[in-house]
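cron nightly-structures :: item 1 of 1
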Amino acid sequence: MRIKTPVYFMRREGQFLKADLTNQSSKHLAEHGFGNGVSMTQSANGRWISYLGVRAGGTRMQYWLFDRQTDSIRLVYEHPTFGARAPSFSPDSKYLVIGVSTDPRRPDAEGGLFLFDAATLRRTKLKLPVSIPEKEIGTSTMWSEDGSELLILVRSMLHNGYEVPIEYLSYRPASKSLEKVAGRFESQSARRAFLRNGKEIPLFEDLLPRSARAPKSEDSPGGTWHAFVENKAGSEQYVLKIRNRNGMTKTVAGIGVAYCGHMLISGWLDEDHLVIRHRFDQHLVYEASSGKMAELPGELKTSESFTW
């Protein structure tokens, strides 16, 4: 198979690599020596990959940012492992958001909510207009669907979040303005909604690395193929199929219902190659035009997470 799309992946030990699927080879980009699992996220425009981990024997979480345009990696921020949270990108890919809590065992550790300009790493700390003491603040953030505002849930980390008032804020990077908004907790779905004038603010969904995504269906980038999972009533199998523009359908793979059918699709590498998940932790590449199936390279098969 000839696949031009590079795949970026992280091994558990903190090795960050770039895989060439055509030549079945990989290039080491960074060696971090992390002693635990690694969390990875990516920007919507595909340029940035952010990941974090703690070096073996270390006590601080390190936040790193990789630029696909230049193959450069920069250390963005460090924080004690207590209170460190996964970062997220704005929908326009301009900002990386990191929210951390103060560690009571480390009074010198700075807590807060930070916006980093991804290109320059210029940092902005948001001063939140809430009644909760700053040293107690814990935040959860989401972006609005249109990317114009960062929506912030604030609560005290010294109390159960269901027993103390929770405050909801909106920050607009364009005007650098903060305002209070309303919020609602939906117990059945365990989700929180942000409201303005009684209407829910549509939210942007953070992009997980491809190895963690599980769409029920997905089109190839140019729309030549549509991949989807089918489960007929009474069937003991989920079946992955692809359909072309003319309506012709081909069966790709099947999996027992015990493994959950929506786990089958990871996504299209390009117009002809689909990465599929076999069971929970194995990935294969399917070539739509020929019907051929291939395994991922050895190092990539054992990776902690990967994306493209």
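cron nightly-structures :: done
The radius of gyration is 21 Å.
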